[in-house]
Design a protein that fits this description.
- The chain is an alpha/beta fold and 640 residues long.
- The protein contains 18 helices and 32 strands.
- The strands form ten sheets. It has a seven-stranded mixed β-sheet with strand order 6-5-18-17-19-20-21, with helices on both faces. A five-stranded parallel β-sheet has the order 8-7-9-12-13.
- α3 packs parallel to α10, α6 packs across α7 and α12 packs across α13.
- It binds coenzyme A and adenosine monophosphate.
- The site of adenosine monophosphate has 20 residues, from β26, β27 and β29.
Length: 640
């Protein structure tokens, strides 16, 4: 390992990179794979045969924690900072070196082994954005266990669904989360989830936080510090490159979340390319993804990407505004000399709303910052121009999904800075062959809108399947257009090959850069005895991009007052799905607009709620339901 060197690029232009990686994918990715430390070399770079899509690095064996932690210590970088933890909500700043990480992951890994967790077992992680969450993930990887992190904003029922699907042996949890001034005890949420779930876990290890301790006196509740103190050191366990590193649940078009599976080898190889090719961040420099470990961005760029690259990662527990103010991002960028900064457009909009002139950026030396990267939702041009002007740095809108694990399109600043076109997510990254198809599967011309698809094989890192649901994977992504992966997004490619991602083609809603299923919320509304039928659509929101709005038809003879029902439904969604759904709006209507075949015209509902003229299909049943909605929103606009 001591001879490990940062990757050296031989491409001077994007065009060269594109040509070479498309014509020689095995050489291209195989070469990048040499940056990692392998216990056994792969038999094939990419090959058919295991599952629905070709797999990467079959036959290879490696360990993700070793590649992110141990090899850096062995190469003499043990004292280098691996994590800067900045938690304004607890008024804490803390640094962990690679040696600290090695020690903590080896001990937690040992503790888990003591409780019977081994290779291939699942471990659920329910923790706030903290070094302990990263330690939990890496410790699982260390012992070959498969982690599944659940975002703290999900409620007990959503946790229970994930517990039943992933069937974890063990849960690693914090005693509480902290949201601004609110302390959120996690133990009651977990206990409720355990009651709801059919699957029984063996034990929960609680990382105790002084703000709210968990009661660990029950037999199967354990204390993190005690467990680590008593644990034996666990060595890194090599796994197959095609073995799952983690399962991450995301919303689909049904209420049942999809367990996106990430394999180990291809993922690390892909991230390795991005750290320099896309994010232009070298070993020893600081990378900051202001996201949460509960999301895919957090997996790839709070934990695995930067650490594997021997970059320091910043873990931020707070909000872009209010913790303590809208200058916190600029303060952290200056404090840790952040070179590459990644966040969601909604976070920038939040700052812009509070500090429109960007006055709080003044006085912070951000000269080390090279670029800002935005993802999670489309970056609206006004947000792009605002942040570009404020920081005077390139702002890269890049497009990706939980399934892909890394960017499908972006601006490869580590190779060549392409012109920034507002509204576009730049160009396909190596390995991604993107085009837009019409309904019949025929490629549309430049600037014409179509369904955005990626030609198979997908590059390394992209999900090879869904956990326990291979057929669902095939149906959701591969069946619509043969030979292509269906992204679920629609948009166009311009004459220069720049990709514009405009909208979802399904009923997935994007709230503050997070995906939510309208069906999951509809299921909660429909369960109320007063509701005859309902529809949930994502309506425009100046801060969060979209928020879900419910439209309900009351059962005939229902005595409940519409306002009271709305209040109950909001509370139901919060309890059943979680506060992260940001579900606050319910409209009672006498009927929902439908086609003659009974399909609810969600698109028309959304258009009307957003003040757009509805594009009414010829198949509409009758217009009266639409007219009612038009009237309702006209009145609301007048009242506003
Ligand atoms: N644990 C528990 N509750 C959580 C939570 C967590 N980890 N995260 C969010 N919540 C709760 C919030 O407290 C809030 O509850 P409330 O209804 O009681 O106020 C609710 O879920 C919605 O949270 P959020 O969407 O974060 O809204 P907000 O109004 O608190 O903050 C933003 C708005 C824009 C500042 C915030 O959404 C944000 O920072 N977004 C950036 C997202 C991001 O980084 N995405 C990365 C993807 S690339
Ligand atoms: P998630 O899996 O939660 O990360 O959500 C992925 C979805 O978010 C994508 O399918 C898009 O709909 C949307 N998305 C993410 N990044 C972008 C972007 N840069 N531009 C447009 N949409 C985006």
């Amino acid at each position: 390992m001591s001879d490990w060197e940062p990757m050296i690029f031989e491409f001077d232009t994007y065009a060269e990179l594109r040509r070479f990686s498309a014509e020689n994918p095995e050489q291209f990715w195989g070469n990048i794979a040499e940056n990692l430390d392998w216990d056994a070399k792969w038999d094939s770079v990419v090959a058919d045969g295991e599952g629905p899509i070709p797999r990467w690095f079959s036959g290879g064996r490696l360990n993700a924690c070793y590649n992110c932690v141990d090899r850096h210590v062995l190469a003499g970088f043990g004292d280098q900072t691996a994590i800067y933890y900045e938690s304004p909500v607890t008024r804490t700043s803390r640094e962990l070196s690679f040696r600290d990480l090695q020690d903590a992951t080896a001990r937690l890994g040992g503790a888990m082994q003591k409780h019977g967790v081994g290779k291939g077992n699942r471990v659920l992680i329910y923790m706030p954005n903290s070094p302990e969450a990263a330690i939990a993930m890496l410790a699982c990887a260390r012992i070959g266990a498969i982690h599944s992190v659940v975002f703290g904003g999900f409620a007990a029922k959503e946790l229970a669904v994930r517990i039943d699907d992933a069937t974890p042996k063990l849960v690693l949890a914090a005693s509480c989360g902290i949201e601004g001034a609110k302390i959120l005890p996690y133990q009651p949420i977990l206990e409720e989830a355990y009651d709801l779930a059919d699957h029984e876990i063996d034990a929960t290890i609680y990382w105790q936080r002084e703000q709210q301790l968990a009661d660990v006196t029950a037999r199967d509740d354990l204390d993190w510090h005690e467990e680590l103190a008593a644990a034996e050191w666990a060595d890194c366990v090599p796994v197959a490159a095609t073995d799952p590193l983690y399962i991450l649940y995301t919303s689909g078009t049904t209420g049942q979340p999809k367990g996106v599976v990430r394999d180990t080898g291809g993922y690390l190889v892909a991230l390795s390319w991005t750290m320099e090719g896309l994010y232009n961040c070298r070993p020893g420099e600081t990378y900051w993804a202001a996201s949460d470990v509960g999301w895919v961005v957090g997996h790839s760029y709070i934990v695995y990407g930067p650490l594997m690259n021997r970059s320091a990662t910043v873990i931020f527990e707070g909000k872009p505004v209010g913790t303590p103010d809208a200058g916190i991002f600029w303060e952290i960028i200056a404090k840790y000399a952040v070179r590459s900064f990644f966040t969601a457009p909604t976070a920038i909009r939040a700052i812009k709303q509070v500090d429109p002139e960007g006055a709080l950026a003044a006085g912070h030396d951000m000269s080390q910052l090279r670029a800002v990267y935005l993802a999670g939702e489309r970056t609206d041009p006004s947000t792009l121009f605002w942040i570009e002007k404020l920081l005077d740095k390139p702002v890269v809108d890049h497009w990706w999904q939980t399934e892909t694990g890394w960017a499908i399109c972006g601006n490869p600043l580590g190779i060549e800075e392409l012109p920034i076109k507002a509204g576009s997510t730049s160009v396909p990254m190596p390995g991604w062959q993107i085009c837009c198809l019409d309904e019949e599967g025929v490629p549309v011309g430049p600037n014409e809108t179509g369904s955005i698809v990626a030609k198979l094989p997908l590059p390394p890192g992209a999900a090879p399947t869904l956990w326990n649901a291979e057929q669902r994977y095939v149906e959701a992504y591969l069946e619509r257009y043969e030979g292509y992966y269906l992204s679920g997004d629609a948009g166009f490619v311009d004459e220069d090959g720049f990709v514009f991602v405009m909208t979802r083609i399904d009923d997935v809603i994007n709230v503050a850069g997070h995906r939510l299923s309208s069906s999951a919320i509809e299921e909660v509304l429909a369960a109320n005895p007063a509701v005859a039928e309902c529809a949930v659509v994502g309506v425009h929101d100046a801060l969060k991009g979209q928020i879900p709005a419910g439209f309900v038809v009351l059962k005939a003879g229902s005595a409940i007052d519409a306002a009271e029902l709305a209040e109950r439904l909001v509370a139901d969604v919060r309890r059943e799905i979680g506060p992260v759904a940001s579900f606050k709006r319910v409209h009672a209507v006498s009927r929902l607009p439908k086609t003659r075949s009974g399909k609810i015209l969600r698109r028309n509902i959304r258009q009307i709620a957003d003040g757009e003229a509805p594009t009414v299909p010829a198949t509409i049943e009758d217009r009266s339901a639409l007219d009612e909605l038009l009237y309702l929103f006209e009145q609301k606009a007048k009242d506003a």
